[in-house]
Write a structure and sequence with these properties.
Chain lengths: 299, 179
């Protein structure tokens, strides 16, 4: 009998731990998602596109990739804090995907090893595996395989950080990756033209920045995340000066698939573009600066 | 006798709890792929454990010039034979002025708009569309659950209301069709 009571107590305890307040008891008869108070009861999950998605799109609009635009791999040993390691893991992983997408084969191995080193330091050992390294070396002459292998490694690290609930680290990695992606795309714009597809892509990244800042909010109690998020909000303030125009899409999709919602265009001016690129350069410099170098603005 | 009745319930509860985020995290991989082989798997696909009756939002980015397919896969024994799903676009813009004092500084907020609702499409488990703008999209899903089995209730079995759900996202550059 005592066993029965013990098991019953265990059962009650388990349920009290596992059931959120909104159980089946409070379930409405008719399922209506949303409503004014929905956000308070909704489980929110966030995903960011992998850098190769953006690079695959802009590759058709830009020239060759340039390795001088990538963050120097030799600095990898010079990041000591978790914040800097995570930010620069995002930077280097983006550089790896960039080098793979643009077939800068001489740099792919270097950046793979750089990511592996920094990944190991962040507790992501195995995401950039020796087996994949061998695979990568074998495929150096096949550019198409390189971006697949690099992207797989990136995704493995990304999902591992999610599975192991390394939220603040992941937030910093994504922030570093976003800044580096923007740098690599924006630096390809040599002369401003509001109609240039690359300029339009830079303007559109307002969307991914809004998304990133919203995602980081859940980890804002982490000092490293809070500091980085504040700097990203500074960039968003510049973006917020760009008008956003919504209009009905005219015509049909070339593929015949439906178009959902309206067209949303972010209008960017030469002054706005310059302000954004300048602020981005300052932020990136701050991120990639090794920690044994004193920030000139603080001296 | 009572002990024998309680043991399966405890075991069931334990297994439901053990089925945490990690077990469900790859659930999206079990979703049927698009019939159009040009679609490739998008890195924003996600699996998670969801609770019956509690909306879950997966926030993603879609890029202009791409076609997307978003499909849902779920454990029908717990989630039910369908899910209720909506796509909601979020656009950040200036907040509309209310005319109240202290509104000088520009304030911004997300304007949300439902752009697809599977309740208007026979509770479809998948949607394909063309993105003509880069957007933030919230994929909102809710599980209806299954009716309680009277036999289970009689035997003292406790049914779980937490099950796995996967959202598979596929994409490809918008292809041109025709001549």
């Amino acid at each position: 009998m005592r066993h029965t009571y013990a098991l019953a107590a265990l059962l009650v305890l388990l349920f009290s731990c596992s059931s959120p307040t909104t159980g089946t008891e409070g379930r409405p008869e008719t399922l209506v998602i949303g409503g004014d108070d929905a956000s308070a009861h909704t489980d929110n999950l966030y995903q960011m596109p992998t850098p190769n998605e953006l690079f695959q799109i802009v590759r058709t609009m830009s020239g060759e990739g340039q390795k001088r635009m990538m963050s120097p791999a030799k600095n990898v040993e010079r990041y000591a804090t978790r914040q800097k390691k995570a930010l620069n893991f995002g930077v280097y992983a983006t550089d790896l995907v960039y080098a793979s997408t643009y077939k800068i084969t001489s740099e792919v191995v270097r950046y793979y090893l750089t990511c592996k080193k920094l990944g190991d330091a962040l507790g992501l050992a195995g995401s950039f595996s020796d087996a994949d390294f061998v695979r990568l070396e074998r495929n150096l002459t096949h550019g198409d395989s390189l971006d697949v292998i690099s992207n797989e490694a990136y995704e493995r690290a990304y999902r591992r950080m999610q599975d192991e609930r390394m939220g603040p680290t992941l937030a910093l990695v994504l922030a570093g990756g976003w800044v580096e992606s923007m740098h690599l795309v924006a630096r390809q714009v040599l002369h401003f033209d509001a109609g240039d597809p690359l300029v339009i892509r830079v303007a559109e990244q307002k969307t991914s920045l809004d998304h990133l800042i919203e995602m980081m909010e859940q980890y804002k109690d982490d000092p490293g995340v809070a500091q980085t998020r504040e700097k990203l909000i500074g960039l968003r303030d510049i973006y917020d000066t760009f008008p956003v125009v919504r209009s009905e899409h005219l015509g049909t999709s070339p593929s015949g698939r439906p178009i959902l919602g309206e067209d949303v265009n972010v209008i960017i001016t030469p002054e706005g573009f310059k302000a954004l690129v300048d602020a981005l350069a300052v932020l990136r410099e701050d991120i990639i600066r090794p920690e044994d170098i004193i920030d000139p603005s603080h001296s | 006798m009572q002990l024998r009745l309680l043991l399966p319930a405890v075991a069931f509860t334990m297994s439901a709890l053990a089925m945490g985020q990690s077990e469900c995290s790859e659930f999206w991989k079990s979703a049927p792929r698009a019939s159009d082989v040009r679609f490739s798997v998008n890195g924003q696909s996600k699996g998670a454990s969801v609770q019956v009756g509690v909306p879950t939002e997966l926030n993603i980015i879609i890029y202009k010039g791409q076609d997307y397919r978003i499909s849902f896969v779920y454990d029908e024994k717990i989630i039910g034979d369908h899910v209720v799903a909506r796509l909601i676009e979020k656009v950040r813009g200036p907040r509309k002025k209310t005319g109240q004092a202290g509104e000088d500084a520009p304030a911004f907020e997300d304007a949300k708009k439902v752009i697809w609702d599977n309740q208007d499409h026979e509770m479809a488990d998948a949607v394909e569309f063309t993105a003509t703008s880069t957007k933030r999209i919230a994929i909102e899903v809710m599980a209806p659950g299954v009716p309680e089995n009277p036999k289970d209730a009689k035997r003292g079995r406790v049914s779980s209301d937490i099950g796995c759900m996967g959202i598979l996202i596929e994409h490809m550059p918008t292809p041109a069709v025709g001549f």
